Amino acid sequence: MRRLKLLIIALTMILVISAITPPAQAQPISAKRIVEVNQYGLVYVYDEVPRTGGLTKISFPREMLANLVNYRSPEDPNPELKEDRDVFSIIVHSRSGDFVHLVTIFRDVVRWDAMNARFMLRMSLNPILDEKVGEFSIIVKLPSDAKPSRISPNYISEKKDGILSGNTSRIDLTDRRPQTLSIDFTSDKLNLLDITDVDAEYSLPDGFVKLGFRFRNVGGKGLSRISFKLPANCSDIRAEDQLGKLLSSYYPKVRSLDVTLRQQVGVGERGSVSIYFKLPADSPYVKVSDNKFRVSPILPINTTVRRYGVKLLLRSMEFVSSDPEPVELVRVYPESIKLTYIFDHMDPFSAENSTIILEYKPLFSIFRFMAYVWVGAILAVALAAVTSIYLKRPRIALSKVDLSMKRLVEEADSLTASYQDLTSLITSGRIVEKGYVRPRILDLRASIRRHGDKISAIASDLMKSSPELRDLMASLRNSVKRLEQSVEELWVMVHRYLSGRIGRSAFEKRVDRHYKLLKRAYGEFADAVEELRERTK
Questions:
Q1: What is the spatial distance between Cα 65 and Cα 43, in angstroms, rounded to a whole number?
Q2: Cβ distance 102 to 71 under 8 Å?
Q3: Read out DSSP for 69-134?
């Protein structure tokens, strides 16, 4: 009974205390945004927003879609992009945690005001969400020497050099027309750089790399230096332009290569620079195992590239296959193959996910025995010299025109041999065998183009030096161009088939139709060559 009384007293006290104690106030739900402008004008936006169930939608004004470069979330390896009438949204799939994080990259949201010699940052102030929050905070990171002259909205202020921040509870993040973040500032460290092309060359298996950059200075002061962040443990590092070696400094601890340009590149002007280095054997950018290379593009500068070309030079190896398919294969004699790949766009995120997987077959190399070959060659030359002293034969001198005509016939014969090998792929039906046709058609395409270019060059010279041959040379040059074009159209069909964009049945029908056009183009070329043979008799 006593225990019951004590329990009642305890419960009564708890109820009394609960009644007189005010309820604890819940922390307001908040959202955060960080906007960071890097040294070449790319803008990174980091958003932290409350998670809303399994799907969290983070939206931006639709007009910013044209400036979007890429996006990534640590909670979701494949966020979904969705377009609506007035916004575009990135949907993050996440089932744990209170917050969702998203990183988006934008370009061209920092503009150069040439009249006032200042930069202008214009973009949406906040993320657009499906649910309201109690508080929103923002941090803007500009170059450390930045001097803001105009900041909007006014609750954002500069806290220290290059760092601005502010927060507010008077904002509705569900409004599909968000406020604009507007900052005008000056900076000597910022240049708006537009890299139009990168040409990367990898020498395999030794790991030598050349990266050639073509760029335009879009805004800021004159550009006199560019910094590159190289892969770890590189060696044989240097920089050049078209006129030769450039002054450069490499700092191994931070892997930074600072290159001083030969002359300053002003706003609106274009420039170029090439950097060279050797990758270590354990580099993640070039991995080899089981006769396969995994090659990853290297983007040593934190910006976007409009066109990124990759050339892989294989020494003492035969090409078998690759993913993606190369756009060109060229044999570099005596025993090398150069494969070309083109990426239409490259940025810091996509560079990490763009990999070329190349299968090859090792070849026996005669160059291991070059010392013996040189000794034999010297003996052969000596023997030939002695023989020529005692066995002199009269020589028949050919004119320059006759020599050119003879070279034309030889090149035409070589092109014809490649054409016949190409057509045999069609007539035998083996053009549909992906593993068989892949290396062969690349080789034949390159051979036809090489001989065709030589024929066109020789014919052009003869048109200038020998007016009586003008009509014949024009006919020969035009016919070889049409033949090259027809071969190129065939290659486009094959490439689409190899990459899986068209099925086998549709591919066979297209090849059958194109084969007639190919034969017609070769017929015109053969007629011109036959007339050429008559002239050389």
A1: 14
A2: yes
A3: EEEEBTTBSSPEEEE-SSEEEEEEE--SSSEEEEEEEE-S-EEEETTTTEEEEEEESS-B-SS--S
List phi, psi (to 5°) of 289: -165, 145
Backbone angles phi, psi at 282, to 5 degrees: -100, 25
Looking at the DSSP bridge assignments, the partners of residue 259 are 226, 248
Amino acid at 313: L
Beta bridge mates, 215: 195, 271
Q: Give the global pTM.
A: 0.73
- Return the number of other C-beta atoms located less than 10 Å from residue 340's C-beta: 17
Report pLDDT for 330: 85
Structure tokens at 487: 């071969």
What whole-number distance in Å separates Cα of residue 142 and Cα of residue 36?
6
Cα separation, 222 vs 438, whole angstroms: 47
Query: How are beta strands 191-204 and 208-220 bridged, if at all?
Result: antiparallel
Query: pLDDT tens across 310-324, in order?
Result: 999 998 888 888 888
Q: Dump pLDDT digits (tens) for 2-51.
A: 443 443 444 345 434 444 444 444 457 889 999 999 999 999 999 999 99
Q: Cα separation of 368 and 116, whole Å?
A: 65
Paired tokens of 261: 């340009």
> Based on the number of CB atoms within 10 Å of its own CB, is 317 exposed (0-12), middle (13-18) or buried (19 or more)?
buried
Contacts of 488 (CB under 8 A, 6+ apart): 445
What is d(CA 174, CA 128) in angstroms, rounded to the nearest whole number?
6
Pick from 138, 175, 121: nearest CA to 49: 138
Cα–Cα separations (whole angstroms), residue 290 to 276, 314, 361: 28, 16, 10
Geometric angle at alpha carbon 163, from 186 and 139, rounded to 5°? 120
Tokens of 230: 């190289």
